[in-house]
Amino acid sequence: MSLIRVDLRSRVPIFEQIVNSVRDLAIRGLMKPDEQMPSVRALAAELAINPNTIQKAYGELERQKIIYSLAGRGNFIASDLTGLMDTHRQALLHALANDAAQAYRHGIPVAEIEKTVSEAIRSANFGEEKGND
Amino acid sequence: MSLIRVDLRSRVPIFEQIVNSVRDLAIRGLMKPDEQMPSVRALAAELAINPNTIQKAYGELERQKIIYSLAGRGNFIASDLTGLMDTHRQALLHALANDAAQAYRHGIPVAEIEKTVSEAIRSANFGEEKGND
DNA sequence: TAACTGTACTACAACAAATAATACAGACGG
DNA sequence: CCGTCTGTATTATTTGTTGTAGTACAGTTA
């Protein structure tokens, strides 16, 4: 059973949910480089959706170099995810800067902005305290 | 000419773009309480889209209490926007906390997170230095 | 050879968004 | 009162995207 999940009621297309889900799993290290993906037909059966939808998602993941495919063998997580990790790191910092700037422009005091950030970090710390490997 | 803009190529529905645009203008103070909105037909003509789409957007804005309508007179920005402002303030802080926590979990050092925030605030300062009223 | 794997293609169904065309009622100014 | 603006409501139609269905073909592996 794979970690990939979709919400049929969401207005985000299913194939895109799969793309986002796999990207997220790769970034979080829950799917390792060169690890084999579920086959198109197997994942389609598990999620109870059409194989073509999975194929579309895998095609997009390959285009984004998050997975690679070997004809007749299967699809695999990319061997080198450093580019993906760097992009994600940049995106995170960009979003953070954006939110901070917007909060400031909205008149929220700098002290409150900084307090929000430090408390969020403290909470994140508790959440990750244990349970790795 | 109104400040409301839409992007026909976006995958966000037009009526929703209008809702978001008006909400944003109200939050940023570019549309004042009790200010009259462009009429359904006038805005439809200006944006070159169907009046029904505008009507749908205005209906949703009224449902969200961002505007009110007077039969035969027109649509107007709500007199009291404090609820909207509070909600927005909360949403901003929530997004900020979320991004900070995610950055931390991703392994970005606390120092870098804090530096990103303070520099974003400094930049926002320059952008708002003058030009009010 | 059989049973997997990925890939490609066409046709069709389903749904949401947007359009089109009306119709009706309140407000306002002459 | 009349004409014209305003919002509101209704129904039908078109359009585009998403997803489904079915089929076919090629590479890999045992």
Describe, in plain words, how this protein is organized in 3D.
Two copies of one chain form a homodimer. Chain A has helices at residues 14-27, 40-47, 51-63, 82-105, 110-127, and strands at residues 67-70, 74-77. A two-stranded antiparallel sheet of chain A has the order 1-2. The mean pLDDT of chain A is 93. Chain A starts with 13 loop residues before the first helix and ends in a 6-residue tail after the last helix. With 133 residues, the first copy, chain A, is mainly alpha-helical. The longest helix of chain A has 24 residues, at 82-105. In chain A, helix 1 (14-27) packs across helix 3. Chain A binds chain B through residues 27, 88-89, 92-93, 95-106, 108, 110, 112-114, 116-121, 123-125, 127-128, and chain B through 27, 88-89, 92-93, 95-106, 108, 110, 112-114, 116-121, 123-125, 127-128. Chain A binds a DNA duplex (30 and 30 nucleotides) through helix 3.
